[in-house]
Amino acid sequence: MLTDSEIFDLSNRYPDQESKVGSLLSLVRSIRRYQKVCLERRDFWGFDFGRMLDRFVCDRLRAELGES
């Protein structure tokens, strides 16, 4: 998974949400907001589901950026 600071740095490098990388970054930020709400509501199943989605989207993001 990417850290929040890595997501922030990438968002500054790829501000265009119309690009594939930009849309994946937007999706990661949305998933992390969802996870925060799940924790506040003590919805641990939702939090785990969000973590799984986060991992998947971050893997796709790394693939788009050409990282391993």
Description of the structure:
By secondary structure, the protein is mostly helical. It has helices spanning 4-13, 20-40, 44-65. It has one domain (4-65). The protein is built from three helices and no strands. Helix 2 runs antiparallel to helix 3.
Task: Give a nutshell description of this structure.
This protein is mainly alpha-helical and 68 residues long.
Provide tags for this entry.
single chain; 68 residues; mainly alpha; 3 helices
Overall morphology: elongated
The parts where pLDDT drops under 50 for at least 5 residues are none
User: What's the total count of β strands?
Assistant: 0
Largest sheet: none
Round the mean pLDDT to the nearest integer and report it: 86
What is the terminal-to-terminal distance?
A: 12 Å
What count of helical segments does DSSP give? 3
Radius of gyration from CA coordinates: 12 Å
Considering DSSP H and I runs of 4 or more, what fraction of the residues is helical? over 70%
Count the domains.
1
> Which structural class do the helices and strands define?
mainly alpha
Instruction: Note the run of SSEs as H and E.
Output: HHH
What share of the residues does DSSP label as strand, in percent? under 5%
